Amino acid sequence: MPPVRYGIIGAGAIAQYMARAFTEGRDSVAVAVADVNLEAARRIAAETGATNACIYWRAVLANPAVDAVYIATPPFLHKEMTIAALQAGKHVCCEKPFVLTQADVREVMAVHATVPHLKFTCNASRFHESGVARTARELVANGKLGRLYRVHFEHVTAAAKPGAVLPAWRNDPAKNGGGISFDWGVYDLAWLAYVLGGHFRPRTVFATLDNYFPLTAERVPPCLDVDGRLAAEIICDDGLTIHWERRASEHGPDRHNIEFRGTAGGFDTCFVPMGEKPGLHFHAFEGAADLKTTTLPEATPPNWDDTMVYSIRDLSRAILEDRQPSNTLADNLRIHGLFDALLESARTRQAVTVAD
Ligand SMILES: NC(=O)c1ccc[n+]([C@@H]2O[C@H](COP(=O)([O-])OP(=O)(O)OC[C@H]3O[C@@H](n4cnc5c(N)ncnc54)[C@H](O)[C@@H]3O)[C@@H](O)[C@H]2O)c1
Predict the structure, then answer these.
(1) Tell me: the pLDDT tens digits for 226-273?
(2) Cβ proximity of 318 and 29 under 8 Å
(3) Distance CA 311, CA 298 (A)
(4) From the CB of residue 281, how many other CB atoms can be counted at a distance below 10 Å?
(5) CA of 130 to the centre of ligand 1 (A)
(6) With contact defined as beta carbons under 8 Å apart, do 42 and 66 qualify?
(7) What is the Å distance from ligand 1's center to 71 Cα?
(8) 88 by DSSP, 3-state: which?
(9) Which residues of 156-173 are buried (b: 16+ CB within 10 A; e: fewer)?
(10) Residue 134 near residue 314 (C-beta atoms within 8 A)
(11) Which domains does the chain possess?
(12) Is the CB of residue 44 below 6 angstroms from any atom belonging to ligand 1?
């Protein structure tokens, strides 16, 4: 089957990482690139072998040689570009965070309902196949944990260092949706939704968020006006309680820790390739014997490069095999609904019910 032909919209930092997806000779090639910065568009065109570079993203949509688009612009542009792409008959892989609110997802879904044959995915699925995700998903689905009652999910990424230069949109909640909660949190929640399957039915949340840098005496740059920490208790329909915490911008090391606990067993893991706790460690009491820990093999070896391009590979295979990608609009509806509730809870300091 011929490869899927992509138009790339947005040729900034992440597009450079993603260029490899279009040159590895599998299911995806790039034919056109658009960026308001023509030099950037030309650079990514040269890296991917695309023959067309321009400043007009709508020209990519009008190009009959384009089957699918990869949208890699700042988040506040994703909704408009996704809707226009679907209306132009293109499949879509959109960078994360997909949009800013659940209402935005609903708008996109209304358009997608008119073109249901087109495939959509969001790059929040980046970690679905990395390392342990599939093993964890199987353990949950096949009942090896018994009744799953608790998940502890804590990830801390390095601070944006004083003096670091960030694109302006990253520090603007209206353009970025949030800070670390949106930047990395969407990966966490997409991973949890993928691994937990039907257990991931958030119903009640209580959240707090804050940022550390503006609290320093001299507002050490970068003075982020978006959140640097979001912590939440998320209670699901079946009673499962998820403690989720995402932090950045603090003076301390990275930390990655995920614990699943059920009545018959539990496991510890880390969803980021090359985290400090690689692999998946399954724990269970065997009768009256001591707790036994078994390290289970990973379905795929942890590898950042594969992780980065996973969503493009997944979308292309979904198009060629006529199946759904591992992250759908329905997944994004749930995740953005959860975000709406988390942000409202943090703002009001009240528990909030998550809308369906
Ligand atoms: N940087 C990363 O490591 C990284 C990793 C994963 C995901 N992402 C996500 O990818 C998206 C882009 O992030 P980035 O870091 O590449 O940002 P960036 O600012 O480096 O690049 C964005 C690009 O979009 C272009 N652009 C802006 N408006 C445009 C328009 N109207 N038409 C065409 N091009 C336009 C800009 O000129 C810029 O080149 C964000 O949603 C981000 O969360 C980034």
Answers:
(1) 888 899 999 999 999 999 999 886 777 788 889 999 999 999 998 776
(2) no
(3) 19
(4) 17
(5) 23
(6) no
(7) 8
(8) coil
(9) bbebbeeeeeeeeebbee
(10) no
(11) 4-124+307-323 (3.40.50.720), 133-304+336-353 (3.30.360.10)
(12) no
